[in-house]
Write a structure and sequence with these properties.
alpha+beta; Calcium-transporting ATPase, cytoplasmic transduction domain A; Rossmann fold; Calcium-transporting ATPase, cytoplasmic domain N; seven-stranded mixed β-sheet; six-stranded antiparallel β-sheet; 22 strands; 59% helix
């Protein structure tokens, strides 16, 4: 019924049946060849040489038939891979009567194909999630009644009604009511937006507020969401198929083997000698070693919560030198979180948060959830709200503990008090949303929320740089200012903001012209770019989405650092595969020379090739193991990390009073500046410095033991010393001011520098500890 649905060709029963049949070929071939080889060996041991020969012939012929088909398919693509040498070897053994050698080669070929098939299997990129989200019907107003019609029957100019939680079916303009929309499916941004009457609205976005009307400006097939579906299909279809590592090496190994075999035949006049060369030239190191290393890498990655859907994807991930990343949900958490709480002078941040969270408990709004989660995380006792009124586009009004509490946009104008102006300015500078909190019609607090950077992001990007990535780019549908800020913090090579899905595809294509490119994203709007990249990586921990359908790699845990793990595993697996293939081919070349000189019979050559196979397979199995990337933390150290992390959460709100005291020094000349300085000094001596001293005396020594060196915490210890110095300096200024009863003019410049400097230093220090040390507790739990 959807207008976009016919654009995806449905899978027919015949096609599905063929796919099921093709999936049985590799394991079936392996079973037949192994049984034929063992049956022939048993018959030979029992003295029935003729039956043994027939068994080996059956095994050889059973491998020749599919191998010829694989060669034909490869040649039609303009490729001559490892399978061609295998076919020549199999046919040669049949022609000269070396049936045991043929049976051995058949087993090698079947084993390699089975391993390769296991590595290459992947979920169909049929864009199921995109289609499931696509609007299939619409409510069209016809006079005084509503009629439900298929989305593809909507015409330009129709007046449609979109209910709460419904998907906008076509592009158009808002009419009759303000629309509160969740546009994350298109932009990736978590915060809801408001569209006023007359504003444009795009198909695919979700109505997060009350019902509203939209005047259709396009048909469903010409609307935004249908375009994204087509874009993802085209991007996936245009990608060139992955050339297997084994086939790349076979491009030169094949002609070398044929030249040596031909030379041996011409020089000796014996076709048996040529067959012997082809037998030992059978590229089993390529057929077996590379797939074993790849499958081992896939297995190791899956144990860390990384699903790599094909061996080709793992190879491409191991070769990638450019990484393109979405912002929201990838580098950031994808959910708003409280960054600061500002209050009127007679209110505390904890009480404002408790009242706001109590009122918001029943609200489905994304900001309400963030406020409630923060309050519960701090252990605040929430009261049960009554008379709850959800006002779309305005917020929540409820009765809490006998007070009328409003959270969202205030009913009255925001007060002109200093603290309120500060809240507005900081929200503008930080790109944060503001939830105003009113109690009994008085605005008493402002909660600032924004999508925070993931704690693992800086460390993950450093690991990716060290793993070999030379270029990192961020693509986002967000505004340029917050995007550039994150790019600066992470040291990205380029930042492209306000990008549509088509823009992202174009950017990925441009990067792919320069280097093998990986793309990381998590939303429907990222699906086309993921399909277009050399290897697409989806943050899939929050459930199936179009990004997971279109991606080659899915991170099943909501941890960005797993991307670095996947990259390191891919590079190591590919390196081991190359080592095994090169070493095996070198030994095979040596054996070919020996066979060309007539010193190695075909059957003996097949057995020698088996020995080479065993050696390279054992080497390839090293990919199952890898270097440990996580520090082993004792349980008491992990508990300390979590305790100090919790103290950070409690101290973070109070850090604002250090800056507030400096602000008052610049604007006030009365006793309020001195009182603010007293509050700061009390906070420093009673709460902050004991926390810092506890870290220095207990946490850092424990971390040094776990990390293997005291140098791992040396720079942070120096920061502790600077915090102590500035706190003591502020205390000295306070003592001088207490003597005279005011902050002297000669103190102001140095005191301002100390206060502002301490505030900036503490914010940076908290972030450094959280990103470098506190994440280790998450690693230990996840491991």
């Amino acid at each position: 019924m959807s207008a976009v649905q016919p654009k995806v060709r449905p899978r027919t029963d015949r096609a599905a049946g063929w796919e099921r049949t093709s999936r049985l070929v590799e394991p079936g071939l392996l079973t037949i060849t192994v049984v034929a080889l063992l049956a022939g060996a048993l018959a030979w041991l029992l003295g029935d040489r003729e039956f043994a020969a027939w068994c080996w012939v059956v095994g050889t012929v059973s491998a020749v038939v599919p191998a010829v088909w694989w060669v034909v398919v490869a040649l039609r693509r303009g490729q001559a891979g490892v399978d061609l040498i295998a076919v020549l070897s199999l046919v040669g053994t049949l022609l000269v009567g070396e049936y045991l050698a043929g049976a051995l080669i058949a087993v090698m070929l079947a084993t390699g194909r089975a391993l390769d098939a296991a590595a290459q299997r992947r979920a169909a990129r049929d864009l199921t999630a995109l289609l499931e989200h696509a609007p299939r019907s619409a409510r069209r107003r016809a006079g005084d009644r509503l009629e439900v019609v298929p989305a593809d029957e909507v015409a330009v100019g129709d007046l449609l009604v979109v209910g709460c939680g419904e998907v906008v079916p076509v592009d158009g303009r808002v009419e009759a009511a303000v629309a509160v929309l969740d546009e994350s499916v298109l932009t990736g941004e978590a915060l809801q937006v408001e569209r006023q009457i007359g504003d444009p609205v795009r198909s695919g976005v979700v109505n997060a507020g009350a019902a509203f009307e939209v005047r259709a400006g396009a048909t469903a097939d010409e609307s935004t969401y249908a375009g994204i579906v087509r874009l993802a299909q085209q991007a996936g279809a245009e990608n060139a198929p992955v050339v297997r590592l084994a086939d790349r090496y076979a491009a030169w190994f094949l002609p070398v083997a044929l030249v040596i075999a031909g030379a041996a035949w011409l020089a000796s006049g014996s076709p048996v000698r040529a067959v012997a060369v082809l037998v030992v030239a059978t590229p089993c190191p390529l057929l077996l070693a590379a797939p074993v290393a790849v499958v081992s890498g896939l297995s190791r990655a899956s144990r860390l919560g990384v699903v790599i859907r094909s061996g080709g994807a793992l190879e491409n991930l191991g070769r990638a030198t450019t990484l393109v990343m979405d912002k929201t949900g990838t580098l950031t958490a994808g959910r708003p979180a409280i960054v600061e709480i500002l209050t009127a002078p007679d209110r505390s941040a904890g009480e404002v948060l408790r009242l706001a969270a109590s009122a918001d408990q029943l609200s489905p709004h994304v900001l309400a959830k963030a406020i409630v989660d923060e309050a519960r995380g701090r252990g605040l006792p929430l009261a049960l709200p009554v008379d709850v009124e959800e006002r779309p586009g305005r917020g929540v009004r409820a009765s809490v503990d006998g007070h009328v509490v409003e959270v969202g946009k205030p009913a009255r104008a925001v007060p002109g008090a200093d603290w309120a102006r500060t809240a507005v300015n900081r929200a503008s500078l930080d790109g944060a949303a503001v939830a105003w909190v009113s109690v009994d019609d008085q605005v008493t607090g402002a909660i600032l929320l924004r999508d925070p950077l993931r704690r693992h992001a800086p460390r993950t990007l450093r690991r990716l740089r060290s793993a070999g990535l030379t270029r990192m780019i961020m693509l986002t549908g967000d505004r340029a200012e917050p995007a550039q800020e994150i790019g600066s913090v992470l040291g990205l090579d380029d930042v492209l903001a306000e990008q549509s899905p088509a823009d992202k595809v174009a950017a990925v294509r441009a990067e792919q012209q320069q280097a093998v490119t990986a793309m990381v994203g998590d939303g429907v709007n990222d699906a086309p770019a993921l399909a277009a990249a050399s290897v697409g990586v989806a943050m899939g921990a929050r459930g199936a989405s179009a990004s997971s359908e279109a991606a080659d790699v899915v991170l099943t845990t909501d941890r960005l650092d797993r991307l670095a793990d996947a990259m390191e595993i891919a590079r190591r697996s590919r390196r081991i595969a190359v080592q095994s293939a090169v070493a095996g081919m070198g030994l095979s070349l040596l054996a070919m020379v020996v066979a060309a000189l007539g010193m190695l019979a075909p059957a003996a050559g097949a057995l020698l090739q088996e020995g080479i196979d065993v050696a390279v397979i054992l080497n390839a199995l090293r990919a199952l193991r890898g270097p440990e990337t996580q520090a082993e933390l004792p349980a008491d150290t992990e508990r300390m990390l979590r305790r100090f992390d919790g103290e950070h959460d409690e101290l973070r709100d109070a850090l604002g009073q250090v800056r507030d005291a400096a602000d008052q020094l610049t604007t006030r000349r009365d006793g309020s500046a001195l009182e603010a300085l007293r509050r700061v000094h009390t906070f420093l001596t009673d709460r902050l410095l004991p926390h810092e001293h506890g870290e220095e005396s207990r946490l850092y020594p424990a971390l040094a033991r776990s990390l293997g060196s005291a140098e791992a915490t040396a720079t942070m210890s120096r920061t502790h010393a600077e915090i102590d110095r500035l706190a003591n300096r502020i205390g000295t200024h306070l003592a001088l001011a207490e003597t005279s009863g005011e902050v002297g003019a000669d103190q102001r410049v140095d005191l301002l520098a100390s206060l502002y400097g301490l505030h900036a230093l503490l914010r940076l220090h908290f972030l450094q500890e959280e990103e470098n040390y506190f994440v280790l507790a998450d690693d230990a739990t996840d491991a």
